[in-house]
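Hey, can you fold this one?
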Amino acid sequence: MSDEGEKDMGKDAERPARPEPAGSRRARRDAARAEGEQSGKTGSAKGKSAKGKSAGSAPAGRTDGTSPPIGTKRDKTEEKLPLPKRIARYIREVVAELRKVIWPTRKQMVTYTIVVLAFVAFMVGLVALLDWVFGQAMFALFG
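Sure. Predicted structure:
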């Protein structure tokens, strides 16, 4: 082995054998966050995000900053809107999403349509050919 290889082995001995698991990183981060909250740094800008909310803010009733598990019921403090208002909100959101869509031009639409029709025609022909071949094979075997 060369001197360069021996130097590299010395560097590997300093590094951990494998990367730190996400669970231990998360636990260390949560512990650091808890220490920061206990030491009274609540008014500093260090714990604030760009939107002005606290970096560790959680939904009501959650202290660990995670969202509730899937399938759990929502908080009793949230009021359910009446059906007409929910429908109106849904339609507004649909319209807002449709405004974000990049619609194809007429030329692109014609091109895409031709490509789809050609592909479908090819697949129909391929399936028909295979059907005929397997039919001939069955008649040859079983007469």
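The first helix runs from residue 3 to 14. Let me know if you want another pass with a different chain boundary.
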